[in-house]
Amino acid sequence: MPYCELSSNGIKIFYRRYGHGSTKVLLIIGLAGTHESWGPQIKGLTGTLEPNDEETAAPMVSAEAVGGGLGEEGRGENGIEVCCFDNRGVGRSSVPIKKSEYTTTIMAEDALALLDHLGWKKAHVFGHSMGAMIACKLAAIAPDRICSLALLNVTGGGFECFPKIDFQVLSLAFRFLRAKTPEERASVDLETHYSKDYLDEHVGSCTRRDVLYQKYVKAISSNGMQPTYGFEGQVNACWTHNMTSKELDTIRCSGFLVSVIHGRFDIIAQIDHARRLADKLHPAARMVELHGGHLVSHERPDEVNLALIELIKASESKLKPEEWSHIPERQSGWLVSGTQMPLTNRDKDGANSLLILCKVLGKLQLNFLYFFGTLVMGCEHISNTLRIKPIRVAASDS
């Protein structure tokens, strides 16, 4: 099995490579996900789901071919090689016990060590959710190793990781805390990963919810639940994540292009946070909004793959950041936002007031969620403490 062993602490990072070609792509998955979660993008970029170490003759798919659809005629010499991996704390990678061993900076250093291990001088780096936070840190730490940056369903970490408070989210939070079986966990995961419209679509005689539910239960049952240390550590990485102004300046001014791709109906990572990040990275960043939920890479794979291929093509053609970000709205289901009009003094005052209000509301929301979570766990503890065990009665001789 392919592992990258970190010389400093002995931690092993499990990875897979797919496809062949001079264009290198590193995929970084999010919280509790494994490398397999990138399936639709691996297939879309390379034309195969067969890992290089297990295949006999791997097909090569050019970026031009992927942009126009896959097929035998799309295979060429200048193809795409993809590497994806399990972050520390999940899958086949090592699971450190201490929370302090999980930060987006440390995990970005894991990704950088993997690039060194592979012998890749530069790569297009695409991250999803927590993986996008890690990708941001990697781009800030080693901007010279980045060809382009794609941030899918990203937030700025901290309180931005918390969803908008409504009845649906409270119900999901309660069910998530109480989920003990693959069936219970699968039910919650579906509602947090996908939009309701998508889950309610019919595929033959069943809904997508029914089909995906069976797949999720099977996957969770076969792979097992994520280790507690790993889950709590990765949550800590999300909670402590923060991009400084200097780091954002580094990304914005390093010359590579950025795509911020987000599902409009994401209940985990609110789209407003992604829009603000795209604004901070202007003019290097393009905001792409799609009809989907948190796992928009699965819900709208063709559109996501097209956006990624466009990013690769634009980077290889040396497109200027100003030309990249200033793109008009186009294509059904797409909303691409680019440059903004300069703010007047009055607009700036209003924007500052709105920002302060958002921060206050965010902190109130965080406190409420903390209180809610504590209440649920407290009630469960009391219930377990007061539970009366049945008394065993000896059988009568008569």
Automatic annotation (TrEMBL):
The signal peptide here is none
Cite the GO molecular-function annotations of the record. catalytic activity
Q: Where is the AB hydrolase-1 domain?
A: 78-301
Q: Name one Pfam family in it.
A: Abhydrolase_1
Cite the InterPro entries for this sequence. Answer: AB_hydrolase, AB_hydrolase_1, AB_hydrolase_fold, Epox_hydrolase-like
Give the matching PANTHER family.
Answer: AB HYDROLASE-1 DOMAIN-CONTAINING PROTEIN (PTHR43433:SF5), HYDROLASE, ALPHA/BETA FOLD FAMILY PROTEIN (PTHR43433)
For this entry, the protein name equals AB hydrolase-1 domain-containing protein
Q: Which organism is it from?
A: Canna indica
